[in-house]
Specification:
This is Rhodanese domain-containing protein. This protein is of the alpha+beta class and 351 residues long. It folds into 2 domains: 9-45 and 107-197 and 299-350, 3-Layer(bba) Sandwich (FAD/NAD(P)-binding domain), CATH 3.50.50.60; 199-298, Polyamine Oxidase, Chain A, domain 2, CATH 3.90.660. It has 10 helices and 19 strands. The strands form 5 sheets. Strands 7-2-1-12-19-18 form a 6-stranded mixed sheet, with helices on one face. It has a 5-stranded antiparallel sheet with strand order 14-15-16-13-17. The longest helix is centred in the C-terminal third of the chain and has 18 residues, at 333-350. The protein is globular, with a radius of gyration of 21 Å. It binds flavin-adenine dinucleotide. Flavin-adenine dinucleotide binds at residues 12-18, 35-38, 43-45, 58-62, 117-118, 169-170, 174, 178, 202, 204, 250, 292, 295-296, 318-319, 331-333, 336.
């Protein structure tokens, strides 16, 4: 339509799903902006540095079960971004320098604005009006000047971003909130399926040690009993991403749910006691706690993505979108990546 600016597609969420979606759209010639509320993209593929210690404290590895994902993984391997860590018959892949590094490589050709929290998605003529906040005012100005194309925002009100289509990769409980805040009404069946998606929380302790741990090679111990408070212990030093012994200790979903609102020192105290055996004779130099409110999906959305069928294109993707015919029915990096790609392809068809 002459005179109507062509706004970009906005992808909400710069985790693996949003990044793979954006890359698919950009490769097809679309203009795309990714918005993420985190300090960097990557979402649950998260890596934290503390001095010489490096911790993967979200996903530790990924596996490959489909030829479609294998094609991407082959390319990442050829680039030297990932290597096999351990595991038969499905190899566990780790990212060089930590899982977040892989998402940084994937984000290189993309426009990604971090520390931008979208607060609502409102329909308007020819697209969407997104409201957002950032706690850092200076950063807001910088974001606009350096990253967002000029025509995207309303100069009279910088808290607005315009999009011709939105692809939301925040977990469905958060995505539904944004849609409701914008006054959208979903079809009853769609609303029911999205509202049924539930996530387990996860509490993770990050321990810097002054010597080697007692975790056996290859630096990965999973509890045999799924009700054990400590579900998984990873030695990031043995994994090859940390220059100093550094453990990530994950509590199981139920324990995390029961203790989620307790103060840091209480949670850390209990987790350290449970995992003491893996500390060996080393001392703890530093202990931090990470709280994941949305960790692994317990219930899924029964398709690769959701097309909301609203007046302008709006699609949802992410790790909890898994078609019933998928043989491994659990949310993970592969499902998130392929969901993003599938949603982007549908968007290209619609546009
Ligand atoms: C502790 C833990 C251990 C795990 N272990 C493994 C593992 O070993 N192997 C495996 O395959 N998977 C694992 N997973 C799961 C895996 O990390 C996820 O399935 C995958 O990374 C999800 O990707 P995603 O892009 O769908 O979502 P996310 O990575 O969660 O990305 C969504 C993004 O949306 C952003 N966002 C949300 N709301 C807004 C908003 N309002 N405005 C702007 N941005 C917003 C978030 O900041 C986030 O970056 C683990 C997860 C956790 C938490």
């Amino acid at each position: 339509m002459p005179g109507v600016p062509k706004h970009p597609i906005v992808v909400i969420g710069g985790g693996i799903s949003g990044l793979m979606a954006a890359r698919t759209l950009v490769e097809a010639g679309e203009e795309v902006v990714i918005l993420d509320k985190g300090r960097s993209g990557g979402g649950r593929m998260a890596t934290r540095e503390s001095g010489r210690a490096t911790f993967d404290h979200g996903a530790q590895y990924f596996t490959v079960r489909t030829p479609e994902f294998a094609a991407y993984v082959k390319e990442w391997k050829a680039q030297g971004w990932i290597t096999e860590w351990f595991g038969e018959p499905h190899a566990r892949y780790r990212a060089e320098g930590g899982m977040n590094r892989l998402t940084r490589h994937l984000a290189e050709p993309l426009d990604i604005c971090v520390r931008v929290r979208v607060t609502s998605i409102e329909p308007e003529q020819n697209g969407w009006l997104l409201h957002w906040v950032s706690e850092e005012q200076e950063y807001v100005a910088q974001t606009y000047d350096e990253v967002l194309p000029e025509e995207v925002y309303d100069p009279g009100n910088k808290a607005n971003i315009r999009a011709r289509a939105v692809l939301i990769t925040a977990p469905p409980p958060q995505a539904l909130y944004l849609l409701r805040q914008g006054g959208n009404h979903l079809a009853e069946e769609q609303e029911r399926k999205l509202a049924a998606v539930r996530y387990l929380p996860c509490l993770a302790a990050l321990l810097k040690l002054d010597g080697v741990s007692a975790v056996p090679a290859p630096g990965y111990v999973r509890a045999k009993n799924s009700t054990n408070p400590v579900q998984l212990v990873v030695d990031n030093y043995q994994k090859g991403i940390s220059s100093q012994p550094a453990l990530t200790i994950y509590a199981c979903g139920q324990w995390s749910r029961d203790h989620f609102n307790q103060p840091d020192d209480e949670v850390l105290g209990q987790l350290l006691q449970e995992a003491q055996v893996w500390q060996g004779s080393a001392n703890i130099i530093e202990a931090q706690l990470k709280r994941w409110r949305f960790s692994l999906a317990e219930t899924m959305y029964p398709a690769r993505f959701a097309d909301l069928g609203l007046q302008s294109p709006a699609l949802l993707a992410g790790d909890s979108f898994i078609a019933p015919e998928d043989d491994a029915q659990h949310a993970r990096i592969e499902t998130a990546a392929l969901s993003g790609v599938a949603a982007a392809k549908r968007l290209l068809d619609i546009l």
